[in-house]
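Quick one, probably user error.
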């Protein structure tokens, strides 16, 4: 392991992420763009990406695509990705390799070690292991992360819950763990008329009761629990409309489920670039994830003054303090999710109080500048 890095010019940083998308992609991109280009020369290496990848290029970042870098376990592609990334790191002589997400975290750190990169940083947005896996699979993932922890100089953990879990599991030495937050630009309180404009943009009635979520349509986010909760709520709320913003590999299946059987109208809005502008459409923000790190969108919803219900997983409790800044429910309990959302809808004064407290408590902890300072310290070896 190394101390601080001293060079005659900007530090050369390779940022690796499996897919530049979702909350992890948002955080990675905002971190890269926040760095002073006179001090840090950043290159993005990714397997794929959509809108965020376009944003990276438009912002002037050098982007290198490694097509073999894919999320599913695939020995053939994984070996090809390892070879490709290793060759790149040797050829470009980077000072720092910073990896995000599970697959890029494994292959990128191994490649960095083999290529003699002086400093290795990894961000845990969450973990590849969780309670809904079989014990052998979960144990295998933990063992891999522990071995990788030996060659990781700094582990940046998004949220206290993630940092605590990393230490409890012995993924790396405690002195190498740093706790960071998500990065959210300053969001002013919604202006007059923001609610109506957001609802028009989504094509939903201005007088509807709206429960919304933002996230990828994946197993992790449990969108089917969101639909079940909506159907439960819809029994007593004929004006209810559900909104899910985001795409993913379950989009087609969730679309069929949303249209099947009785229940409230559900708008699957797909990927959108205007999430902060449409959040005011929601009366309650509800996130039913099975497992998480610290979702950026929860902080964005709180910054917009939207009351929040989320599952009690990982670092969500950093911002959703039960009864103070929102409500927490167990994962995979859509009945409890429906009850909690119903409580906030039935008690608007309590919902408004929690939303106001949440916005007030965000303070400066989740500003882009805080992320920038954490990255500078991690890259340069500052304590």
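Nope, works fine. Designed sequence:
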């Amino acid at each position: 392991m190394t101390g601080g890095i001293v060079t005659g010019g900007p530090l050369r940083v390779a940022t690796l992420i499996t897919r530049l998308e979702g909350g992890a992609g948002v955080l990675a991109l905002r971190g890269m763009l926040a760095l002073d280009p006179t001090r840090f020369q950043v290159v993005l290496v990714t397997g794929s990406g959509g809108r965020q990848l376009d944003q990276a290029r438009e912002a002037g970042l050098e982007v290198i695509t490694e097509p073999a870098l894919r999320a599913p376990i695939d020995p053939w592609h994984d070996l090809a990705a390892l070879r490709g990334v290793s060759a790149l790191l040797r050829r470009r002589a980077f000072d720092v390799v910073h990896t995000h997400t599970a697959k890029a975290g494994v292959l990128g750190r191994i490649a960095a070690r083999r290529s003699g990169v002086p400093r290795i940083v990894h961000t845990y947005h969450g973990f590849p292991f969780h309670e809904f896996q079989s014990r052998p699979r979960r144990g295998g993932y933990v063992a891999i992360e522990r071995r990788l922890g030996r060659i990781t100089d700094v582990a940046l953990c998004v949220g206290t819950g993630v940092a605590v879990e990393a230490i409890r599991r012995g993924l790396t030495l405690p002195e190498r763990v740093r706790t960071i937050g998500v990065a959210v630009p300053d969001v002013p309180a919604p202006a007059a008329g923001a609610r109506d404009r957001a609802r028009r943009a989504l094509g939903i009635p201005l007088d509807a009761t709206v429960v919304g979520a933002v996230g990828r349509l994946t197993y992790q986010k449990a969108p089917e629990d969101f639909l079940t909760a909506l159907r439960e709520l819809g029994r007593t709320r004929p004006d209810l409309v559900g909104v899910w913003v985001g795409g993913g590999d379950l989009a087609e299946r969730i679309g069929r489920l949303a249209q099947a059987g009785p229940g409230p109208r559900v708008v699957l809005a797909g990927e959108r670039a205007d999430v902060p502008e449409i959040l005011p459409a929601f009366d309650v923000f509800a996130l039913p994830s099975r497992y998480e790190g610290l979702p950026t969108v929860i902080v964005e919803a709180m910054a917009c003054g939207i009351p929040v219900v989320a599952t009690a997983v990982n670092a969500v409790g950093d911002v959703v303090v039960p009864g103070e800044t929102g409500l927490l429910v167990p994962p995979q309990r859509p009945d409890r999710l429906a009850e909690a959302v119903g409580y906030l809808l039935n008690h608007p004064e309590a919902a408004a109080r929690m939303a106001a407290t949440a916005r007030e408590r965000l303070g400066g902890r989740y500003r882009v500048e805080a992320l920038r300072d954490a990255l500078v310290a991690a890259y340069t070896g500052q304590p």
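The first helix runs from residue 22 to 34.
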